[in-house]
UniProtKB/TrEMBL annotation:
Superkingdom to which the source organism belongs: Bacteria
Protein name: AraC-like DNA-binding protein
A Pfam match: HTH_18
Database matches in Gene3D superfamilies: Homeodomain-like (1.10.10.60), Jelly Rolls (2.60.120.10)
Any GO molecular function: DNA-binding transcription factor activity
Repeat among keywords: no
Keyword DNA-binding included in the entry's annotation: yes
InterPro entries reported in the protein's UniProt record: AraC-bd, Homeodomain-like_sf, HTH-like, HTH_AraC, RmlC-like_jellyroll, Tscrpt_reg_AraC-type_HTH
Domain HTH araC/xylS-type residue range list: 187-284
Keywords: DNA-binding, Transcription, Transcription regulation
Length: 296
């Protein structure tokens, strides 16, 4: 994330936009924020720092990859545990009437906001690969809100919905995987793979985790998903690497972080999948995200 993508922390606790607002904050605050509530939804994506979040008098110690969902009218506040550590986070505000008019008619969005309203589990913890997927969506959305290209409003709406869709799917799959009777074996296998992309995931390992014969797992996965487990793992690793390229992390470190044992194998698979080298893709990505002059 580039420095100019960040915003100086805003003390106001009300919205100006009639739909949503999103901010990337990076600071060393010398004081916390008093307990407060909003008339809108707040989604808090934690990136770095030593912070505790109080929600309705219950405290949650957050770590990078955690997401807090706060419905309207809920009293909350962060407490800084170490002011010397950078405090980085994304904050997304969505008006309640915008949700009701534009999003509530779609099941996948209603599912997400219903769970936010219930407040039974406001804290979501994600693995780094999954969180990177959301970061990529947030990064694109922030860039679009700062730009003035033709179609900006439509693009922002689509990117917001892409972000919310990813969050809703994560909650849905997690809920399925915690109830083995209602969740399919393949759904639970996909969840496990998605959460362990940086590790060596093999049929033998999946057999140990799910107490099933490895040949049965291989057969049922291919029959249900249409691709082999090896192909699924490879595609998810490549997607994770692709999304992580919006950061300035070295390509070798990105490849290693998503389970590739060598950069040469990552390079070969990436070019075969996308028809372009990782370096060329990153170069085009930065060029596409460069601010453009508004149309006259």
């Amino acid at each position: 994330m580039k420095q100019n993508d960040s915003t100086k922390f805003l003390n106001r606790q009300y919205m100006l936009d009639d739909a949503f607002e999103i901010y990337y904050y990076k600071d060393f605050p010398d004081q916390g924020v008093a307990p407060h509530s909003h008339s809108f939804y707040e989604f808090y994506f934690f990136l770095e720092g030593k912070v505790s979040i109080s929600i309705q008098e219950r405290s949650y110690n957050v770590v990078p990859g955690d997401i807090i969902m706060i419905p309207p009218g809920t009293v909350h506040c962060p407490s800084l545990l170490d002011p010397l550590t950078p405090y980085r986070r994304f904050v997304l505000w969505i008006r309640k009437d915008y949700y009701q008019k534009r999003l509530s008619h779609t099941d996948v969005f209603r599912y997400l906001f219903d769970r936010c309203d219930k407040l039974s589990s406001p804290l979501l913890s994600m693995s780094q690969p999954r969180f990177n997927d959301l970061q990529a969506a947030i990064f694109s959305l922030i860039r679009e809100t700062h730009d003035s290209r033709f179609g900006k409003e439509a693009a922002c709406r689509l990117l917001l919905e892409q972000l919310l869709l990813g969050l809703s799917r994560f909650i849905y799959i997690r809920e399925l995987s915690t109830h083995s009777d209602s969740g399919s074996l393949c759904s639970r296998i996909c969840t496990y793979i998605d959460e362990h992309l940086s590790e060596a995931v093999s049929l033998e390992r999946l057999s140990q985790v799910f107490y099933r014969n490895k040949y049965y797992i291989s057969h049922i996965f291919k029959e249900t998903m249409g691709i082999s487990i090896h192909q699924y793992i490879l595609k998810k690793r490549l997607e994770g690497c692709k999304n992580a390229m919006v950061t300035h992390t070295a390509l070798e470190a990105i490849a290693s972080g998503f389970g590739f044992t060598s950069y040469s194998s990552f390079f070969r698979y990436f070019k075969k999948e996308y028809g372009i080298s990782p370096q060329e893709y990153r170069k085009r990505l930065y060029q596409d995200n460069a601010p453009q002059k508004p149309m006259e």
